[in-house]
Amino acid sequence: MNDQHNQDLVDLYEPIATLKPVDENIWIVDGPIVRMAMYGTSIPFPTRMTIVRLNNGDLWCHSPIELTQKLPKCYTNSCRLDRKF
Predict the structure, then answer these.
(1) Where are the alpha helices (DSSP H) in 1-85?
(2) Partners of 50 in the beta sheet?
(3) How many independent structural domains does the chain possess?
(4) 26-38: burial string, b at 16+ Cβ within 10 Å, e else
(5) Which of 41, 30, 35 is nearest to 63 (CA)?
(6) Sign of the dihedral through C-alpha 75, 77, 81, 85
(7) What residues contact 36, with CB distance under 8 A and at least 6 apart?
(8) pTM score, two decimals?
(9) What distance in Å separates the CA atoms of residue 26 and residue 6, rounded to the nearest whole number?
(10) Spatial strand order in the sheet of 59-62
(11) 3-class DSSP state of 83
(12) Domain that holds residue 60
């Protein structure tokens, strides 16, 4: 099976690398498909980051995706990103 065929098996939640509000002070950002090596093969799967604005204004980031040119502007418009857990 070629990589393109494997890519087609996993759908992305478009648009990627864009803040999507879930609730007040909670966003998700869908990322690219990454490949995980397992059992002698590699398995494609989509990535997703969750961002939560804390009471002090900091952003808590769970499962960060690759930083793109577009994302820093999103962070700046929301507030500063001081911690990643």
Answers:
(1) 3-8, 70-78
(2) 28, 62
(3) 1
(4) ebbbbbeeeeeee
(5) 30
(6) negative
(7) 42, 43, 45
(8) 0.69
(9) 31
(10) 20-23, 26-38, 41-53, 59-62, 83-84
(11) strand
(12) 3-84
CA angle 41, 37, 49 (to 5 degrees): 135
Q: Which candidate, 73, 85, 76, places its Cα nearest to that of 49? A: 85
Q: For the CA atoms of 52, 56, 57, 63, what is the dihedral angle to 10 degrees?
A: -30
51: number of Cβ within 10 Å: 23
Structure tokens at 26: 């909670």
Question: 């001081």: which residue's tokens?
Answer: 82
What integer pLDDT is reported at residue 23 of this predicted model? 95
What integer pLDDT is reported at residue 68 of this predicted model?
77
Could you tell me which residues come within 8 angstroms of residue 45 by beta carbon, excluding any fewer than 6 positions away? 10, 33, 34, 35, 36
Beta strands in the chain (DSSP E): 20-23, 26-38, 41-53, 59-62, 83-84
Residue 73 banded pLDDT, cuts 50, 70, 90: low
